[in-house]
Design goal:
The complex is a heterodimer of chains A (132) and B (182).
Chain A: H1 7-23, E1 34-39, H2 42-46, H3 49-62, E2 67-72, E3 84-87, E4 94-96, H4 101-114, E5 121-122
Parallel strand pairs in A: 1-2
Antiparallel strand pairs in A: 1-3, 3-4, 4-5
Helix pairs in contact in A: 3-4
Chain B: H1 4-17, E1 22-30, E2 35-42, H2 49-52, H3 71-81, E3 85-91, E4 95-103, H4 115-125, E5 130-136, E6 141-145, H5 146-153, H6 161-177
Parallel strand pairs in B: 1-5
Antiparallel strand pairs in B: 1-2, 2-4, 3-4, 5-6
Classes of the chains: A alpha+beta (132), B alpha+beta (182).
The complex binds adenosine-5'-triphosphate, FE2/S2 (inorganic) cluster and magnesium ion.
């Protein structure tokens, strides 16, 4: 059996991670970040919300995009799960439905990078969103 | 739900909704007694005993966006299919404990799935909640506690992609080391 990783190893790589973090600008100003919320009620989870969330986290790092990825409870669109709410800095939130990794890729390349709308937007009356 | 880690993600979501500050997931498995037990404990707002007794009925839900709640009924169904059970214990203002009991060897028991990814994702998406994950086998016990992780990180958030990657690996290796059933 080889050495199993522990928190002591995390301490060792921390400095390197810190260096990478400080290379990025704006990281301490949430207003300037792209916000992504993945709906994670039962139906979202059952239809693949976790893979979608993993994908966003990994791809934002690879593509060097400043973003915060979080989860929310139900957004009320069972029929269109997984759903994702994207807020670009200075814009109103937009909700996309039926998001798989391919759609997520489109959302990153077209909407997040260029502000072009992508198919699959769910028209939302924000009053109806359950604040869970 | 495809696997147990997805049920855990879902049940933990109930705890988050209930305003929990600490959420603990404990899995105990024993090949000799054929037990596979998942206990999820939170210190959220809890439920009255009467309400807790009913929540495995899909028509009991506090959600407002649809009329049925599916999380607990689905977990119960999966547990019972293996000859196991689901217990909900709760106290208002104190918290809730969900215990799902499975037969370890029963072919209807869903596999554990990506538990490391699930715990790390929960931690990364809910930085203010303390998550504890303990996995107990006949061989040993592995404990993952975000309080310890945060102490190590000294201010760097768990949600940092490099940290997420490291923690997933760390959990995977440690679970392999204690020889989990999967
Ligand atoms: N940890 C908890 N603390 C407080 N209340 C809870 C907890 N877990 C469940 N409940 C209550 O039990 C109800 C049923 O939970 P269940 O997970 O089955 O369905 P849901 O969360 O309402 O909907 P779904 O899981 O399908 O998104 C919830 O609506 C909530 O009122
Ligand atoms: S319950 Fe399905 S989207 Fe919320
Ligand atoms: Mg639920």
């Amino acid at each position: 059996m080889g050495q199993v990783k522990s928190l002591a190893d995390l301490r060792k790589i921390k400095e390197e991670l810190q260096g990478r973090m400080s290379l990025r600008e704006n990281s301490n100003n949430p207003e300037s970040l792209v916000q992504v919320k993945v709906a994670m009620a039962t139906c979202g989870i059952a239809s693949g919300a976790k893979q979608v969330m993993d994908f966003f986290i990994e791809e934002f790092e690879k593509r060097n995009i400043q973003a915060v990825v979080t989860q929310t409870g139900c957004m009320g669109y069972c029929f269109a799960e997984p759903t994702v709410e994207i807020t670009l800095p200075g814009h109103s939130p937009v909700v996309y439905g039926y998001v798989d990794t391919k759609k997520a890729d489109d959302i990153i390349e077209k909407y997040i990078k260029n502000g072009e709308l992508v198919d699959g937007i769910i028209p939302v009356n924000y009053e109806t969103i359950e604040k869970k | 739900m495809k696997d147990l880690s997805m049920h855990i993600l879902d049940i933990a979501q109930n705890s988050i909704t209930a305003g929990a500050e600490t959420i603990e997931v404990e899995i105990t498995e024993n090949r000799v007694t054929d037990q596979y037990r998942i206990v999820i404990t939170d210190n959220g707002k809890g439920m009255t005993a009467a309400y807790a007794a009913k929540v495995t009925d899909p028509y009991v839900t506090s959600r407002t966006t649809r009329k049925v709640g599916l999380g607990l009924p689905l977990l119960k169904q999966n547990a019972e299919r293996t000859g196991g059970s689901l217990e909900v214990k709760s106290e208002p203002e104190k918290g809730t404990r969900i215990t799902a009991l499975f037969s370890l060897k029963n072919i209807d028991r869903p596999p554990l799935g990506d538990i490391g990814g699930t715990m790390v994702l929960l931690a990364a998406a809910n930085l203010n909640i303390r998550f504890i994950y303990r996995h107990i086998t006949e061989k040993d016990t592995f404990t993952f506690d975000t309080r310890e992780v945060n102490a190590t990180l000294e201010g760097m958030p768990i949600s940092e992609a490099g940290v997420i990657r490291f923690l997933k690996e760390m959990i995977r290796e440690n679970l392999q080391e204690i020889n989990i059933a999967g």
